[in-house]
Structures are given as structure tokens and as C-alpha cells.
Amino acid sequence: MSNTTPEAVKQALMAVIDPCTGTDLVTLGAVDEVRVEAGKVEVVLILGYPAAGLQQVLSEQIGQAVRELPGVDTVSVDIGWLIAGAQAHNGIGAIDGVKNIIAVASGKGGVGKSTTAVNLALALDREGARAGILDADIYGPSQPQMLGVGEQRPQVKDNRYMLPIEAHGVQSISMGYLITEDTPMVWRGPMVSGALQQLLTQTQWQDLDYLIIDMPPGTGDIQLTLSQKVPVSGAVIVTTPQDIALLDAKKGIEMFRKVNIPILGVVENMAIHICSNCGHEEPIFGAGGGERIAAQYHTQLLGALPLDLSIRTDADGGRPSVAADPDSPVSAQYRAIARQMAAALWLHGRDAQAAPEIVISDD
Q: d(Cα 89, Cα 101) in Å, to the nearest integer?
């Protein structure tokens, strides 16, 4: 007969650290149930972010920790996740069919923001979440080509709603679906802002856990509309290690801070170049820039991606890296970044809910 109790199992699980939050599973509140019977232990784990890529690692760590207890013969682990909607900073009500909206932004163009955005949406899908992407670059939409959608047009429902186009498992909408490749958007700011709101609210999203918004570069009308009229849960900043890119990335961070949108982290693109012939590594755009800016603004470096030819060619060919080669090191990095991002949003939402309410009375 086993001398092990559920309490002893939970005590052992305090030694298992969740890699995306740095907190043990018990303190994190992720241990949903522990059952002990005749030497058999069953552990049910419920995380607040999608973590398909961590199931095996966490199962092995939990099994190793619990098997050290006396009388334990077998350990079974069931790992799942329950994704809640984070409260928007500006009190705006949620968009129908969307739990969380994450803006992927940059201070300047050319840093790989759109490529990062689409691969993060795909990575969230591969990790077990329902994900979508909205192309908010009205003037220069790129997601239709990156997703390989071609000449498809959204179907219209009830003469009011557009149905998102699904590609590689993610739902998507873009101004590029409504115009031809050669049609320029010669619009002033208010028209662009109105178009963004229509794309967001008149698309019939289907039960999304996360909607990634691929922002245009800069801090203009689209960004202001997003912060004032859209229930954004958090933002991710994309940069390269280059000093000039970091200067613009800081402006993007400052803009989100001024409108109280939490920064979930920084993604550093083109961090290192690896020679395809000899394997020599060289930081041709500088080194450590993403880590420095993350530390300066008290956020985290979600990940550093290499300057890899396949990332560009896959996106240009309509099959971004996570879809084109799911088992590649680059895809693994995108999935790790997506997990970190989703975990940061989960923790931010929990902290916001736990904040004390201040009541003022005449007593």
C-alpha cells in the first residue's frame, strides 16, 4: 500500500518549474487535480496558455518528481489548457468571437514584423489555440501573399459580415482580400481608421483564443485607433539589433505605454547570420539590442530569430516557416516565442484581476 498522499504529491510538484513563467506548478495554480490509488498517481495540469510543445517535457519532469515519493509505482500526467479572455486596458467590450487581441508592432519598416506576426499566429495554432490574424496595414497589406491565399475573396453573410479566410489553420482578414494587387489605397487618415474598425468588427470571427493584429510601422492613425477603440490585450514589439531600429522600437513601446497597453515582450529579428557554407556565426546587425531594450522597459525578450534565408523565401512563397517546415529549428523558435507571449498575457490578466479594489467611504 502506498504511503503517498495528494498533499505529498503537490509538495513534490513544487519542484517542477513551468518554463514559460518561471514559477512552480503549485504556486502557479496549474495543478487542477491529484489522484492517488494503490501506488498509482494521476496528475491533471491546466495551464492558462497553449503548450502542446511542452507536454512531453512537463510530463517527464512531473513523473520524475513524483516517482521519488515512497510507494509510487506509476505516474500518469494529463496536461491541458484553458485560455481566458484578458480584460482590455481601455474598458472596451470584447469583439464577438475573440478572447484576446495582441498587436504585433514595430517602430519602423523592414524589421520582419509581418513575417513575425503570421508565424506567431501559426505557432499559436500549432500549440493548441484557435488563432487568427488581421492585416492592419491598409496601405500595404502583405498577409494575403504570405498566407498564399491568392485571389480568394471573403464570403459575405447577411449582407453585413465577412467570413474570415482560413489558411494553414488560422483565420485571416486583410484589405488585400478586397482589392487587387495593383490598386493603391489613396486614403486619408480617418478613412484608414474606419477601414480598420470595419475589418475588425464586421468579420465574423469563429471562437478565437487569440487574434494577432499585424500593425503597420510607426505611431500614426492606425495605432491611435487601435489604442482608443479596440480592446487590445497586449502588444509585442519587433526589432532588429541595429541601433537605428532600436530607436524606433523605443518609440513604439512608449506609445503603447502612454495608452496603457501592456508590452508582452520584444522579438529580435535578424539577430545572427549563420553562413550556409561554413557555419560561421556573425551578428551583422549588432548584438544584444533586443535584450537591452527589454531590460530598459522592464519587459522580456521573447526570443531572437536568425537571419535565415528560409524565413524570407517561405513567407514570399505563401507558406510561412511554421507551416512550411513545422519541425525546423526556426519553427521551434517561433513556437517558443508564442508560448512565452501567451504565458505573459495570462499572467498579466491574472495580476490585473488580483489587484485590490480601493473603496472610499465617509467612515
A: 11
